[in-house]
Amino acid sequence: MNRKKKYIPKSRHNPEVQARKIDLHREELRQIKKAVEALTFSHDNHISYLGNFARHDIKNSIQSMDSILSTTTAEEITEQQILSLKTNLKVIRETMENFSKLVPYSKDEKFEYRNLLIAVELLSRNDFYNGKIKLFKVYPEEEIYLNLPFQSVLQMFNNLIINSIKSLESTEKPIIQISAHTDSEKLNIEISDNGQSIPEKDNERIFEFGYSTTGGSGIGLYHARYLCELFNGSIQLSNTKIGFSKTFLIHLPIIE
């Protein structure tokens, strides 16, 4: 006895649902592309900073040593020149040691907050010296570790420091203070300076692409916020800290 098969209609795709899915995937791809571009930009800048950092100190030391060795015979060399050669060798050794601090290695891809500040200070030390800027650092009592791409977080901090340095150009006694404390699962960092103030109405605009109050490109703060949010953190500007014209408040997730 033949039984008729139960008729099952073919499923049809809803064009509107499919269109929404395609739009969703496109947005996800756009966000991924944006994140990759931001990280690539950070990597490229980091490599550039490393090259400039090493070249500046080592080049100056080598030139100084070369000028002595190429114009002086063994019989003519003085104690002062020998001391100069030793000093420049010491500078080269210290530069190589500091270079390693700008590229910390960790098998589990984590780094300590103190190492980040050491790298920030090393990158901007010439600007601090030339601008007679005093840098104060207030560390948390405990060791704090971040599980984030070091070069990208360094780029984010460096962008904020560069912004502060530019705003301090006409300040009599320029000061930058970096302080931090922990709260629950977040590391809360404050980067304060007593440079050019920013009107409250522009507190959000300064993070817009291309907007600048210091005559810069308007990319640094935009990139800093994007990186911070990419790492599930946040960044905002405050003008309420006593003794300073502005403070950038950064919140980053930490490792327990």
Automatic annotation (TrEMBL):
Say which enzyme class the record assigns.
Answer: transferase
Q: Point out the coiled-coil segments of this chain.
A: none
**PROSITE patterns, per the entry:** HIS_KIN (PS50109)
Keyword list (alphabetical) reads: Kinase, Phosphoprotein, Transferase, Two-component regulatory system
Provide any one GO MF term from the record: kinase activity
* Record EC number: 2.7.13.3
Q: Which domain of life is it from?
A: Bacteria
Domain named Histidine kinase: residues = 53-256
Among CDD domains, the record links this protein to: HATPase
Q: Does the keyword Transferase apply?
A: yes
Q: Which is one Pfam family of this protein?
A: HATPase_c
SMART domains membership: HATPase_c
Q: Which reaction does it catalyse?
A: ATP + protein L-histidine = ADP + protein N-phospho-L-histidine
Name of the protein: histidine kinase
Q: Lineage from the top down? A: Bacteria, Pseudomonadati, Bacteroidota, Flavobacteriia, Flavobacteriales
